[in-house]
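Lab meeting, item 3. Inverse folding demo.
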């Protein structure tokens, strides 16, 4: 690990200290590392939209909106290779929230999220994307001759 020194304006330091307190950081270094990682990941997603990602799409929707549940379900089925799991929550008589776990090429995940969020009746949609490196490996889990292939997902740091 390397040590670096930076100089910030007083106003920016004050905002940063407030940020540290709101987020519960114990020290400036970890917060700064997280901010740099976040920016680098965002830039990587723009520069390499075909790179793989792990993502969550969370949106609130009006479950009385005509055919909305059927449309979002159809979109999920059309993108079954991206969709890992869906969590559905009833918020009120009128509103539901869904969180969809996704894995695949960033551009396809983003296109799926845009298609869902743009549906009439969907509100508060947000996609969180984590760049990953996917590798397929075969190994056993305690049984000598029972190896099988599966994916290993490594966040890019």
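The presenter then showed the designed sequence:
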């Amino acid at each position: 690990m390397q040590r670096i020194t930076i100089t910030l304006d007083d106003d920016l330091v004050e905002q940063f200290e407030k940020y540290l307190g709101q987020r519960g950081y114990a020290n400036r270094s970890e917060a700064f590392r997280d901010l740099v990682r976040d920016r680098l990941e965002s830039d990587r997603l723009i520069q390499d939209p075909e790179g793989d990602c792990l993502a969550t799409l969370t949106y609130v929707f009006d479950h009385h909106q005509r055919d909305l549940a059927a449309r979002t379900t159809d979109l999920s089925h059309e993108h079954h290779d991206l969709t890992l799991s869906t969590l559905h929550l009833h918020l009120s008589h009128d509103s539901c929230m869904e969180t969809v776990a996704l894995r695949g090429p960033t551009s396809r995940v983003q296109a799926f999220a845009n298609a869902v969020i743009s549906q009439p009746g969907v509100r508060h949609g947000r996609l969180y994307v984590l760049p990953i490196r996917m590798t397929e490996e075969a190994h056993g889990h305690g049984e000598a001759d029972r190896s099988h292939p599966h994916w290993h997902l490594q966040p890019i740091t």
